[in-house]
Every structure is written in C-alpha cells, then in structure tokens.
Design goal:
The complex is a heterodimer.
Chain A lengths: L3 E3 L3 E4 L5 E7 L5 E8 L3 E8 L6 E2 L6 E7 L2 E6 L8 E8 L8 E2 L3 E5 L1
Parallel strand pairs in A: 2-11
Antiparallel strand pairs in A: 1-3, 3-8, 4-5, 4-9, 5-6, 7-8, 9-10, 9-11
Chain B lengths: L3 E4 L2 E5 L4 E7 L6 E7 L6 E7 L4 E4 L2 E6 L4 E6 L8 E10 L3 E6 L3 E6 L1
Parallel strand pairs in B: 2-11
Antiparallel strand pairs in B: 1-3, 3-8, 4-5, 4-9, 6-7, 7-8, 9-10, 9-11
The chains are: A mainly beta, B mainly beta.
C-alpha cells in the first residue's frame, strides 16, 4: 500500500516566518503534488514535480515555492508566511502525471497568526 | 485548463436510499475521472474511477457513469449506510490530455440520516 507521510499534522507559525512542509512517499512514484484545501473551495493545486529537481506551477503558486532534491521527498516552502495561507495542506503522489490515482498524505493544518 | 463543477454542495438522504452526485467538465480531451471520499479529519481516498473508453463502472454499492458527449459524470451510491457520510470530490485531469495533475470539484457533503 502506498504511504505518503507528511512531517507535521499541526503547525502554528507567525506572519513573516519561513515555513517548510515536508512530504515523503515510499512507492518510488515519479510525480508528487502539493494541494491546498479550504472549505467551499475544494482542493487546489499549488505546485507539482514530475522528476527530481523538476517543478511546475499549479493553479495557485503565488507565495509558495518547492524543492525536490530526492525522488521520495517533496517540500513546500512558504517564503514569508501570511495569514491568508492558513489552510490544510495535502501532499500526494502518483505513478503518472494526470490520469492515475493520487495517493494523499494525512495533511498538515497550518495556522499563521 | 480543466474546469470541474460539482453539485450539490450538500446532500442529505435517508439511510437505505440512493445518493447521486454530479460533475461537469470543460475539456473534451479529458480521459480520466476519479472520485475521492474524505471522512472527517482524514485524507481523501480514491473510491472509484472511470476512463473515457467506458460509460459505466460499478463496485458493489457505488457506480460511476460518464457521458462524454455532454461532458458530465456522476457518482451513484445505493443502499446508503451511516459510514457513507463524508465529503466526496470528483476530479478530472488538469490539462485534458492527461498531464499535470488533477483538478477537483468543490466537494459534496453527504449526510446519511438514520
């Protein structure tokens, strides 16, 4: 069974802080994704990566960056956290880029005060 | 890019009755349509998916139908049970040909009334 692990379940940060969200998958998937989930808005794609050191912007990349130094690890970075980035962040992986199932982590609930 | 609309946003049904959730998509090149279930406090999990070469797929009490001409697909749950209470999301490839992740609908909160 695919396992996607996010390093923190809950995180509280202050405005202006640099924030790192970590995600690791154990199925040798090429593709990894970061989504943001907000009530009434569903899941929105922030960034994705289809190979080590490769990254692509999703639908809402502003204020975020990513890093993929190893195949199994995909990090989401908030360069300067703001209160409107308070949200649930979900990492996912898949063996194909768009027409295969996504396997999600448990999510990180980030609060920026 | 793909645009996915999902209705209704909330659906309340009596236990034992059927539930239907509908989604429409905009890109006629889209070829893969998954449905995810998210229970309270848990991760979204795939429950069923369909590819564009078939019109219907069933798995026990759940089924998905696809109408490519009208560009819509639906989730059907029969004989609903309390454990079916959750938020359900439909999705389609973000760029119709199957690349670059999935675009999700905004979700349907399904409530099963005892």
């Amino acid at each position: 069974d695919v396992k996607v692990t996010q390093s923190s379940r809950y995180l509280v940060k202050r405005t202006g802080e640099k924030v790192f969200l970590e995600c690791v998958q154990d199925m040798d998937h090429e593709n990894m994704f970061w989504y943001r989930q907000d009530p009434g808005l569903g899941l929105r794609l922030i960034y994705f990566s289809y190979d080590v050191k490769m990254k692509e912007k999703g639908d809402i990349p502003e204020g975020y960056s990513v890093s993929r130094e190893k195949k199994e690890r995909f990090s989401l970075i908030l360069e300067s956290a703001s209160t409107n980035q308070t949200s649930m962040y979900l990492c996912a992986s898949s063996w194909d880029r768009g027409d295969s199932p996504l396997h999600f982590g448990n999510g990180t609930r980030l609060t920026v005060t | 890019g793909e645009n996915v609309e999902q209705h209704p946003s909330t659906l309340s049904v009596q236990e034992g009755d059927s539930a239907v959730i509908k989604c429409t998509y905009s890109d006629s090149a889209s070829n893969y349509f998954p449905w995810y279930k998210q229970e309270l406090g848990k991760r979204p999990q795939l429950i069923i998916d369909i590819r564009s070469n078939v019109g219907e797929k069933k798995d026990q009490r759940i089924a998905v139908t696809l109408n490519k001409t009208a560009k819509h697909f639906s989730l059907h749950i029969t004989e609903t049970q309390p454990e079916d209470s959750a938020v359900y999301f439909c999705a389609a490839p973000r760029r119709g040909g199957g690349a670059d992740g999935l675009t999700f609908g905004k979700g349907t909160h399904l409530i099963i009334q005892p």
